[in-house]
Amino acid sequence: MLKLDLSKARQFVSEEEMANFKAQTLLAKEILLKGSGAGNDFLGWVDLPENYDKEEFKRIQAAAKKIQEDSDVLLVIGIGGSYLGARAANEFLNHSFYNELPKEERKTPEIYYVGNNISSKYISDLKQVLKGKDFSVNIISKSGTTTEPAIAFRVFKAMLEEKYGKDGAAKRIYATTDKARGALKSLADEMGYEEFVVPDDVGGRYSVLTAVGLLPIAVTGANICELMEGAASMRKALLEQDYEVNPALQYAAARNIMLRKDKKIEIFVNYEPSCHYISEWWKQLYGESEGKDQRGIFPASVDFTTDLHSMGQFIQEGARLHFETVLEVVESAAELVLEKEEIDTDGMNYLAGKTVDFVNKAAMQGTILAHTDGNVPNFLLQIDKQCERTLGELFYFFEFACGVSAYINGVNPFNQPGVESYKRNMFALLGKPGYEELAKELAKK
Ligand code: PA5
């Protein structure tokens, strides 16, 4: 089970301070669980690991199997909470070079993510990759109206229809959207796409354990039952454990203590490139949930040891604005032993017989000590290994801690009013009907 170790941060967050923060943390947990706080119509994710649609779950598994059988490639079209969870999971669970592996070894379709930018280069390059390949599309949008995925979907729907005809294309399009509303829902109904539901009470960034994440995760051959079981066991632990041993409550409290000490930036650190998108998912979850009403902790991330050769300097010696949360995968997914060489020209023989992961862990321990000495508090989050179960635990842990943390800080964790501002301006500049007045205002500026 996932562990949070605050021992390296004791000089910044004492046990007494943690004890003093207990009352407001427990109150925030109660507000979350009783549904008495702001945004309480978006709490479906709390019970999701136990209380999910079992019939739909089976359809997800069947759809994943069909896609595996009839497609060389699955395109996952979505943005924000409608793609980051799936991408985080697929990179965490699969081969580092998943798409590049020979098909006989990979056995499951290549996966590409699109609709998460508005780049004509990116979309055109992807069209080229698809030439001569059988492909399917999972279009994911809760609102069904988001511009980025809608543009990508137009392009790849047309490509599918050209290749397989309208009926053939419809059998290769899987739409994950609202059960009743939105342009995508209407289109899916009209065209007869297979549909999956983003529940009303689950917001985008809390939706990885719904069809939003589960279908693209299952297509890579991952065991989504174990993912849900991991989340369920974490849920049980977080609901039952006392404050002193409850990792989500401890994390929520410790980071809010940091905020009150003017540590306004939290840097999420990993030592595994395959965890890069866990950081991206985490940033979206915390940034959109907490960054509002002119407050919050700014969530940033680095990939170590890569970024020790860039951002490492600032973290060690730059302005003291930040604290770090380090994700450690205790048991590496691969064992690679360094060989001894006859002539030690590169001076690396002192490491002969050691594993590469042993070196990685030494880098991590050395960095935690150095950063702590440089007055950067470090929280350590440990997971045993990279598998579906630990990932389910991790997803649920962060979601729960985020809800509690936002309530401690007095903000609504489940809305994102700020995301709308750029959209309104963009629509006005593009001449979308209904935005004429705003277009005039922007023209004056
Ligand atoms: O967390 C959120 O709610 C957002 O990041 C959304 O997921 C994102 O804006 C995409 O929205 P939609 O799924 O409606 O296309």
From TrEMBL:
Keywords, alphabetical: Cytoplasm, Gluconeogenesis, Glycolysis, Isomerase
PROSITE patterns: P_GLUCOSE_ISOMERASE_1, P_GLUCOSE_ISOMERASE_2, P_GLUCOSE_ISOMERASE_3
GO BP, one annotated term: glucose 6-phosphate metabolic process
CDD domains linked to this entry: SIS_PGI_1, SIS_PGI_2
Cited InterPro entries: G6P_Isomerase, Phosphoglucose_isomerase_CS, SIS_dom_sf, SIS_PGI_1, SIS_PGI_2
Active site: residue positions: E288, K423
UniProt catalytic activity: alpha-D-glucose 6-phosphate = beta-D-fructose 6-phosphate
Pathway note: Carbohydrate degradation; glycolysis; D-glyceraldehyde 3-phosphate and glycerone phosphate from D-glucose: step 2/4; Carbohydrate biosynthesis; gluconeogenesis
GO molecular function: carbohydrate derivative binding; glucose-6-phosphate isomerase activity; monosaccharide binding
Enzyme class per UniProt: isomerase
Cellular compartments per GO CC: cytosol
Record carries keyword ATP-binding: no
UniProt KW Isomerase keyword: yes
Primary site of residence: cytoplasm
Enzyme Commission number, as recorded: 5.3.1.9
Subcellular locations according to the entry: Cytoplasm
Protein family: Belongs to the GPI family.
Protein role: Catalyzes the reversible isomerization of glucose-6-phosphate to fructose-6-phosphate.
Protein name: Glucose-6-phosphate isomerase
